[in-house]
Design brief:
The chain has 455 residues and is an alpha/beta fold. The chain has 13 helices and 18 strands. It binds adenosine-5'-diphosphate, aspartic acid (ASP) and magnesium ion. Magnesium ion binds next to loops.
Length: 455
């Protein structure tokens, strides 16, 4: 069995859904198809939640009508039955009723937010299922809440692989005589059956979790670009398509900012050694990017990726000098507030570290101030060069820093993995620095075994 995941832009309207149907039909294998919400719908629901928080109920209703129009138009263009349009309308009315109830109650817990966020995928899968049924007689919709089981972190839930394997196994044996199983990405449920979600962009992760628990032969991620590029094509010029990446390279690339894959996507595939292929729904015959265990092109920089909205916390204390236990006290505080630390640099008397999630920044800083002097730097960015073995190659590090002469680099990370070399700098210098690094390492690359020019 293979798993195919189609992102928001791949299912954004009727024409795209027809393409998705063709791609699925052209694969002879038995397959699990995972779909996202239509492009922009989850953003609208997030907007809706913010409006609700600020008591702007009319704006929230406006957004619901936009969501309604988008889905009804898609359904009409796909010539779906009246009863399906009625069902979509009913679901959207349900969303409206929940919004009304929450506005009266003044309640907006993570549990309610997860429920609201799940509507995007629920509406999308319903539309796609009804369209698929017109062309396939052996397609089965399986609600992802019956498949992926998580803890109670409602809006960024952690998957329980043991329970998930059991649930998926149960559903597949109950419905064994189907060729195509269709489910929502992003949406899951806890052990009480309450809706949870896997964090923004989480449909990629849903697909890889399913691939892992069924031991799929392959995971195909269909998106709106030809595969993984040497940098973000929205901001950087002359990017190339990367044909092959190792699991380590792809994990680091996703973790350090390439939006094309959710950061957690690769881990489940690694354990079962499942190849992950990133392909373009609108150009499906291109070979895309293949991510596999084996390494290729050692000492070659494959990508320059970046992350914005990074905060540096500087922790200065003489108590660190010649003592032990200080670092663990610091990390206990981050642990307590469930805030991941991304990059760390230490000296005899100071620790600098970066965080992305500033939800609990105030509480963290208040606690850190009890043991050290603290200063903060906001609006920072991380740039990472990704490629097997690059950090072990003196020439590459020298070129990396040489090219950034004149740009103020605040932190450097030389971690244990050989795959990435990261720096932290001010956001205002970000794009200039990324373009300089990309021009230096990736513009003249003529290694067509690994890169290809876009056309
Ligand atoms: P989907 O809806 O299919 O999940 P996303 O919008 O989440 O799609 O991810 C695809 C987008 O990621 C592309 O349209 C592209 O603009 C952006 N992107 C950022 N960095 C990269 C990269 N290194 N390679 C390819 N795409 C990238
Ligand atoms: N629809 C969700 C989001 O926009 C999940 C996804 O598209 O992967 O974040
Ligand atoms: Mg995505």
């Amino acid at each position: 069995m293979i798993v195919m995941k189609f992102g928001g832009t791949s299912v954004k309207d009727a024409e795209s859904i027809i393409r998705v149907f063709e791609i699925v039909k052209n694969h002879n294998n038995k397959k699990f198809v995972v779909v996202s919400a239509q492009a922009g719908v989850t953003d609208k629901i997030v907007d809706l939640i913010n409006n609700l928080k600020n008591n702007h109920i009319e704006n929230a209703y406006d957004l619901i009508e936009q969501i309604r129009n988008q889905h009804i138009l898609t359904a009409q263009k796909l010539k779906l039955k009246k009863s399906v349009i009625y069902e979509l309308e009913k679901k959207i009315d349900e969303l409206k009723n929940i919004i009304f109830a929450l506005s009266i109650l003044g309640e907006l817990s993570p549990k309610s937010q997860a429920k609201l966020l799940s509507f995007g995928e629920d509406l999308s899968v319903l539309t796609i299922f009804e369209y698929f049924k017109k062309g396939y007689d052996r397609v089965k919709f399986l609600d992802s809440r019956l498949l992926i089981k998580t803890d109670n972190e409602y809006t960024s839930a952690n998957v329980d692989f043991r329970l998930t394997k059991e649930s998926v196994g149960k559903q597949l044996s109950k419905h064994s005589d189907y060729n195509v199983y269709l489910t929502q990405g992003f949406v899951a449920s806890n052990k009480y059956g309450e809706t949870t979600t896997l964090g923004r962009g989480g449909s990629d992760y849903s697909a890889s979790v399913i691939a892992s628990v069924i031991g799929a032969n392959e995971l195909k991620i269909y998106t709106d670009v030809d595969g993984i590029m040497t940098s973000d094509p929205r901001f950087i010029k002359n990017v190339k398509l990367i044909k092959r990446l190792s699991y380590d390279e792809a994990s680091e690339l996703a973790f350090f900012g390439a939006k094309v894959l959710h950061p957690k996507t690769i881990t489940p595939a690694i354990e079962k050694n499942i190849p992950v292929v990133v392909l373009n729904t609108f150009n499906p015959n291109k070979s895309g990017t293949t991510i596999i265990r084996s390494k290729s092109g050692i000492n070659i920089v494959k990508a320059i990726v970046f992350r914005k909205n990074v905060t540096i916390i500087n922790i200065i204390s003489n108590r660190m000098l010649g003592t032990y236990g200080f670092l663990s006290k610091v990390f206990e505080i981050f642990n307590k507030y469930c805030t991941p630390v991304d990059i760390v640099a230490t000296s005899e008397v100071s620790i600098s570290l970066t965080i992305d999630d500033i939800k609990n920044l105030k509480s963290i800083v208040d606690e850190l101030r009890k043991i050290a002097k603290i200063s903060l730097k906001r609006n920072m960015a991380i740039i990472s060069a990704i490629g097997e073995g690059i950090r072990d190659t003196a020439g590459i590090a020298a070129r990396f820093f040489g090219i950034l002469r004149g740009i103020n680099i605040t932190m450097v990370s030389i971690g244990a993995s050989e795959v990435n070399l990261s720096i932290v700098l001010s956001e205002k210098d970000l794009f200039k620095a990324v373009q300089l690094l990309h021009d230096e390492f990736l513009t003249d690359t003529e290694n067509y075994d690994i890169f290809s020019h876009l056309n």
